Please model this.
Amino acid sequence: MMNNTPITLKFLAEKLKMSVSTVSKALNNYPTINAYTKQRVQEMARELNFTPNKSAINLKEKKSRIIGVVLPNLLDHFFTRSIDGIEQVATQNGYNVIISQSHDELAKEIQSANMLLRSRVDGLIVAISKQTQDFAHLNQFEHMGIPVVYYTRNPSFNLSCHKVLGNTFQGCYEATKFLIERGHTKIAYLGGPKMTNFTHDRFNGYIHALKDNDVPFSAKFVAYTDFDKENTIAAIKNLFADPDHTPTALVAFKEPILFDAIKYLKSSNHPNFDKIESIGFGNNAFINYLDSPPIASIEENPESVGENAIKLLLRLITKEIDMKNHQKVMVDCKLVVHG
Amino acid sequence: MMNNTPITLKFLAEKLKMSVSTVSKALNNYPTINAYTKQRVQEMARELNFTPNKSAINLKEKKSRIIGVVLPNLLDHFFTRSIDGIEQVATQNGYNVIISQSHDELAKEIQSANMLLRSRVDGLIVAISKQTQDFAHLNQFEHMGIPVVYYTRNPSFNLSCHKVLGNTFQGCYEATKFLIERGHTKIAYLGGPKMTNFTHDRFNGYIHALKDNDVPFSAKFVAYTDFDKENTIAAIKNLFADPDHTPTALVAFKEPILFDAIKYLKSSNHPNFDKIESIGFGNNAFINYLDSPPIASIEENPESVGENAIKLLLRLITKEIDMKNHQKVMVDCKLVVHG
DNA sequence: AACCCTATTTCAAACGTTTGAAATAATGGC
DNA sequence: GCCATTATTTCAAACGTTTGAAATAGGGTT
Model:
């Protein structure tokens, strides 16, 4: 049952007693090839299950039809959902996707990048690791003429590059506004790691929503944390430190972190726990199972972010957009009210 | 800044005024090449940032150093975690991984398979879709001499193939035994879709644990569901239908389904809800946030399953194991007690 | 039947590597 | 200084495609 001679153009040509080029052109539907010849070739190809060798084609065409994706990890649903968007558009356009996780380590990111460079990817989509400060390993792609699109996590806003971002300003603005409209005036903001541009836009959205609705801002209602649970608890303790002036609502930069916060507040028997309404970024499916769920979620539309990233990348690959002409695409968030 | 002439062996050879083969051999550290020559070549290669063209190498070597992975989706943490294992071992051995989601649709799975075949992957790791009954699209790999390892979800147990599976029998046995040891005698079993081999081993584990510990089996305590919430609720209603004879514990085939079950039981104000102890397969990170969490989880060690799958595949690729000599690897589960 | 189109097929080079065989250079023995 | 080794480098073919240019075949026209 196992076929030992690999089915190549040459093999088909010999079987059909014609030249390799005729076979190639017949399969690629060249107009100069006789209709009957085409038919014969195509039939034989189907019969023998001919599959063109991509390496040979890539070598000839000087491209790989592979898109590289480097991202921190696949456990974060934001990233896995974004891959759905990337994969779909890529496949539609005949591209394969190689995904590589950096696990938020620079060393691993460099290794991934080099591996993808060797594979001669036609383009790269990156969400950088937390440790990434230097971009040599990513810049080398552009030096070789391979376009790079940064998505979500990207070099500080000053550095010019192609980027596709969730509109976290708008997302946070709408969440804050929603809480204000529900009557809250004491809305706390729980931000993420300061070093990344994780939190800057979100915070501005919060601030602007307060301002636009004449709700006074209080520095006491702002705290920062990261992905560590203990730090989140510390931040929450801080926000609720003054018993005469505790928040009645909370906006958080990421949902699992918000869950930690809620859990702590509940366990600490905060007197008005039931009244506190909260919103975080993410719209995690597990919200359904929480007893004290956030009142709403800021849906970041990761599929759409991924889709926009690959669409931009494809336009850079086809040179429809010049690589030097740096693009910035914003994808709006959507407030999803639960229950 | 952008380099236009691609850096190839030829280019290096011209710059160094030597032949292409010398350059190639110098870079590959051939013993016949003079040490000084090697040094000069390697320095120049580094300086010009030479990156060998993988397509050319693949063409020459008749292999791609790419492993294809086809799985239902990336939203299930079992699969994303298994990828961690696959990726790690693959990278260590110089292989790239192309992941393709079938979204549990046969048509998409066929498309993915064909795409990977064109890419001349050196091997394939598959978790089949729910719809897959016919295996022509996967068998063609083996016909071309490309080994295929099925993992987790695999053709019915009769069909011979290479497979790596979680030991769900043992997992379910231990969970049931654990509940018995905690004094339960009325333990319900909530199984998954019957058509897949999803549930067969699990159920046997449950049965054997009861038998080995002289706990009587009752058909009333067995119900089946799938990933649909309504069906789960219906199943739970059934299990708890007889008010004189309600289960005090529950073993479920998958965790998110168990969460649906718990949620329903809680909302239905079952009199002894607080006493009910439950265990499901998965060990989902979100358990931390549940108010009425399962007492334990059956950790399926997906990373290890992935690792075993790729390790087996690599041995098939190197022909250390003959493709015809079908292997079956079982990965034990681990009971993780919470709190 | 010589000629010219047009339709169709084939030639041949190229893509960037690898590698066994052949060629050349360097070394040492005498 | 010549020959035989050995060390080192180069040649040339191959991997499986694509594609412009060249060749050939098949008809018509006259």
Residues 168-299 of chain B form a domain with the Rossmann fold fold (CATH 3.40.50.2300). Chain B has a mean pLDDT of 92. DSSP finds twelve helices and twelve strands in chain B.
